[in-house]
Amino acid sequence: MELQVSGRKVYAYTGGRAFDAKLPTVVFIHGAAHDHCVWVLQSRYLAHHGYGVLAVDLPGHGRSEGEPLRRVEDMADWIVALLDAAGVKSAALVGHSMGALITLDCAARHPDRVTRIALLGTAFPMRVSGELLEAAQHDEPAAHDMINIWSHASQAHYPSNPGPGFWVIGENLRLMQRQKPGVLYIDFTACNDYAAGLERAASVKCPALLLLGRRDVMTPPRATRELVQALKGATVTTLAGSGHNLMGEKPDEVLDALREFLASV
Amino acid sequence: MAAPKYPGFGTLSLHAGSRPDPVTGARATPIYFTTSFVFRDADHAAALFNMERAGHVYSRISNPTNAVLEERIAALEGGVGAIATASGQAAMHLAIATIAGAGSHIVASRALYGGSHNLLAYTLPRFGIETTFVNPRDLDAWKKALRPNTRLLFGETLGNPGLDVLDVPRVAEIAHAAKIPLLVDSTFTTPYLMRPFDLGADLLFHSATKFLGGHGVAIGGVLVDGGTFDWDASGKFPELTEAYGGFHGMDFQEESTVAAFLLRARREGLRDFGACMSPATAFQILQGVETLPLRMERHVANTRRIVEFLTAHPAVEAVSYPELPSHPDHALAKELLPKGCGSVFSFNLKGDRAAGRRFIEALSVFSHLANVGDAKSLVIHPASTTHFRMDEAALRGAGITEGTVRLSIGLEEADDLIEDLSRGLRAAQKG
């Protein structure tokens, strides 16, 4: 569906059903140089199982107009503006990588709008290596390759995503290539500059799930220790055999973890 | 830190898409000989049907053995996924039927395999899809043939049988300026010799019967989506960018930013046309793919020896192979095919049709049959077999004369092949 947020046309995938703000809402927030389609299976399932789903394209990504926002805090505020535009009072937020930082920040600063948070492929601090940041700025194809190689734990994915016969590693590369030039560097700079993660985590009051890939080398599970300590009571689930692209590599396991978390009291 | 690297071609040929069987530990990819797959529960069934979960339902739509082949070929080609089909012709039909229909127009190279020419020239017009054939070397001809309803440009990476090298980057530019995709038949080159997506093509298919299998025991095809074409931005493909009543009102581009074509091809094309591959065939072709880089190296090395031999032979009028300076696409071949121009080529015998018959009948290592890309060396006379439906003008257009002989060089010892050809050429000269 298309919405107007801050005067700009933005897009949110609603899981193959018309969005109904009266249902419990789940907002899916993608990571750097991605768009809504990384969540297609999970969001489609939930949309057909009692949830109103908004899998957004962040500003300047995918089908959403405008320039990419440069600070995680601004992206978090944008999510609240999106909820306003969609007529949603409060929602569960599910974010991947950069989207996990947005989710965390939004839950901490807008507690009345966020009911629970799931952080996938996350870490704090989410520092981008100098080599990768340099490539993102000056040589995007090289940066895409680095990210793509580091994001996958395997050369074989079952049942693949969005279905058998699709090559997850190729899809991830093409999706990054499809974003406008410069988006990746802006996104990575936002991740790199975000300093308030632990402070924000300490003030989160809603239930939190961390869903991590055991073989994630972009945001390794060990890099979440302080975050887990700060997010008191958070559930941590680590998926064996997954790298950073959890939704691509382990779509069923991600969905099952989200279903359980969203349904928990 | 050293820059990370993707696994190399040889590694992907063996590993992409496959893992040890999680139940039995079998290292080879098992043949999943089953028509259908048990649902875990009613919710799982509904989720699979509605594309809320990934998985297998029915082997016409997907099968675990086929999926390994599909993902492996997609990895080797640098695409976003693939669909294994009953034959190369089925792959070509699936590609066209996914984005074209009554009222659509195609611009195609005129240097095509006879079966492909047939489909475009005679069969598809019955369904309202017209094709204009052009000289693949004439870039202006591609442009001039475009119409408002043109939905696809199509050519073979190496034309059959004259080995016209398709100028993939330039033809892709023409396609993209018209906001339509370029589809190529990559059968003769395989991803080992050319990766068309790296050069600008958007879709490709193989007759997997040929080099991908290599053993000549299985008929199959593979259609691969490069994931590069922006169907939304084009605005010419409502099949992919608007709700489709035939599949839950799905807008395929909305579901997948980069693989909308493949989603529709599987969810509609395999479901409704049904030209799927048997898992036994997928297994057999996988055995071939495992050794593809080794075989292609040997195919090319043997071919170079034989081209050299034939070029110097007095009974041979001309040899058409793009690595020869005399070939019209020599410079383009150096640019696009640095690892070799494959192992299928043609040459013209001196003498009449009878000389050609004596040549073929004197051979003992080469097999006289209608196929290419086998591990065994093959020979055929196109004018009386693969291209027999073409009239003389069409034959000329495809670069064929009555004396043209097509060879597919196999993996035997090159010396034995040269000895066999010497015997045939002697017989040809005796008339």
What count of helical segments of chain A does DSSP give?
11
Indicate the radius of gyration of chain B in whole angstroms. 22 Å
CATH homologous superfamily grouping of the largest domain in chain B: Type I PLP-dependent aspartate aminotransferase-like (Major domain)
Low-confidence stretches of chain B: none
Fraction in beta strands of chain A:
15-25%
Overall mean pLDDT of chain B stands at 95
By CATH's scheme, which homologous superfamily of chain A applies? Alpha/Beta hydrolase fold, catalytic domain
Q: How would the blueprint of this fold be written?
A:
The complex is a heterodimer of chains A (265) and B (431).
Chain A: E1 2-5, E2 8-13, E3 25-29, H1 40-47, E4 52-56, H2 72-86, E5 91-96, H3 98-109, E6 114-120, H4 130-138, H5 140-150, H6 168-178, H7 183-193, H8 197-203, E7 208-213, H9 225-230, E8 235-239, H10 246-249, H11 251-263
Parallel strand pairs in A: 3-4, 3-5, 5-6, 6-7, 7-8
Antiparallel strand pairs in A: 1-2, 2-4
Chain B: H1 9-15, H2 42-49, H3 64-77, E1 81-85, H4 88-99, E2 105-109, H5 114-123, E3 130-134, H6 139-145, E4 150-156, H7 168-177, E5 182-185, H8 190-193, H9 196-199, E6 203-207, E7 221-225, H10 231-234, H11 238-241, H12 252-255, H13 260-273, H14 279-290, H15 292-311, E8 316-320, H16 330-336, E9 344-349, H17 353-362, E10 367-368, E11 378-380, H18 392-397, E12 404-408, H19 414-429
Parallel strand pairs in B: 2-3, 2-4, 4-5, 5-6, 10-11
Antiparallel strand pairs in B: 1-7, 6-7, 8-9, 9-12, 11-12
Helix pairs in contact in B: 1-3, 3-14, 4-13, 17-19
